[in-house]
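Changelog-adjacent note: as of this version, every example in the card shows the full chain rather than a window. The one below runs 515 residues end to end.
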Amino acid sequence: MIRVIEFLREASGWWRAGLALIAGMIAALSVPPLNFWPLLFVAFPVVLLMLEGIERKLRLQSFFLGWCFGFGYFIVTLHWIGFAFLVDAEAYLWMMPFAVGGLAAAMAVYWGLASLCVALSGRRRFPAALVFAASLAVFEWLRGTLFTGFPWAAPGLASDGMGAVAQTASLWGMPALTLLIVAWAATWPFILSGPRLHRLTAVLIIATLPLCWAWGSYRLQHGVVANVDGVGIRIIQPNISQDSKWRDENARAIFDQLLEMSARAAPDGTPPTHIIWPETAVSFLIDESAVAKVELEQLLGGTKTLVTGALRRDINAAGDGEENKVYNSILTFDGSGTVVARYDKWRLVPGGEFLPFEWLLEPLGFRKVVTVPGSFTAGPGPVSLAIPGAPQAGFGVCYEAIFPDRFVDPLKRPGWLINVTNDGWFGNSTGPYQHLAQARLRTIEQGLPMVRSANTGVSAVIDPYGRIISSLPLSESGILDTGLPEALPPPFFADYSELILGLMLLLLLGLGFVL
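Full-length structure tokens:
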């Protein structure tokens, strides 16, 4: 063991870069669907040992070390994005290495900056581990905030495999879970060696892991949730392949499939009151179709409600040459087939729904993966809307469910969450499982149940404790008939967001500079 430690401290050049890259790839196995979270307790100490071996006068090498670590982590956790470029490989395959590799490289910059902060602090050994945990938590928060934000697969997502530990998201959210998990993984070796005060502090930090698990277990054991009276949910998972979804000749058949699945008799004979279709369930503008209105009225029979993901547009009546605005929306139809509520997605996917730096990238041949004239228009933000016959709902389209901040309307708390998505772009990859895990964390943070309809899966009903009540397998067509769990009173995180994260950061940084 001593020889291994000395080797890691003395590693340099490409050896050090390669080991950091491998450590990052190993750390990536901690998130769903594998959930091998104990590997974090190997990967982070390895990087800290190599960071310790960098001379003070070569501090910029610390950035490169952290960047390599982050690049290894993100190239694995984000590799599923490449599947989207296989849908129309002839047009988009050449963009895959630029998109996946470029995104991983950009996300790794945040980890490189966290490592640089450790070097600039001048801390070594146990204090350096504390500074690293705090710095990485800060830069992970920035990763989810700056330039539209992309907090996918933060280390806090490893809590999905840590059982009851995930329940603490109700107290401090995923950003603080990232801080805790990195602190646990980085400081445990110092229980075994070093000054007595350092060992004692390390023991206290690690002791919070079983305490979090015990508190979460208690919360789950006493978490009995009833269903909302008079609400029966039917989730439709049509499993339409992405390469056929947008062909004009398939539009009628897809609509017929959705209607047929929605109209099937329930096994217990009780018809659903609310039907949920996935993101962009049909390829045409359903709210502008007179034929669709007639057929929806027949399906809903004056009593049922349909909530569906849909494309919609605002027609430019000014005639000034501007294109019509196109939105990725969720529309609610009442029993007569009339739109009574509308939510417009406001967090658009870079490269998918709009092209960043379009003035530069479009002349080079880069295009959005989702083809509409121009780019999608962003909606105004989170909003709670009235749903006929059910509590008012909060909405999220696709990857909006990965953001812990501003996920629900802060002025009007909803009674449940509706998330529609189309993960068909990513096939049978790790992406849909990671997406579901992040949606589960949102339910714990907000204390709200979620009804999730995904075109190819994973569709699910999740209770306000993050427990999956029922679900449909990935890449299968199916129907999910279920009740709607009741909401909990707002958890601490829902009211105070990331207050505890700030306090934890101050505590860790204070210890890092005092010890």
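Structural remarks: The chain has a mean pLDDT of 91.
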